[in-house]
Design goal:
about 140 residues, alpha/beta
Length: about 140
Amino acid sequence: MGTFIPSASSIERQWHVIDAEGQVLGRVATLAARLLQGKHKGIYTPFIDTGDHVVIVNASKVKLTGRKEDQKVYRTHSGYEGGVRTDRVKVVRATKPARIVEEAVKGMLPKTKMGNAMYRKLKVYARADHPHTAQKPAKREVA
């Protein structure tokens, strides 16, 4: 008997919702990354995307430890010479609060085409309401 390798048609993708209100950013991102990669399943295979869909709500109320609120910087580059833009967490939280969680989760996923496919299954919302109630997502608690 050989090793079981799941096919794309045999993978059942579930939906999970994580409430980030009052939770530490790293713990929320770690749980989301594990669910997106499928590491919580018995059929996890590193070279096949076995992960589930993840919805994170209340991203604007996620908690940062230490002095990260003042010191952490997000950098982007436009591609042009001298096109580096830097934003502190305070500014990002005021303008695009979901980006804080998205960047944390994306940094925990593989930097490959499969990692990009996993990232596309992540939905982050700044408030408590989301348009994915029809999928009946299971509520997951951060440990």
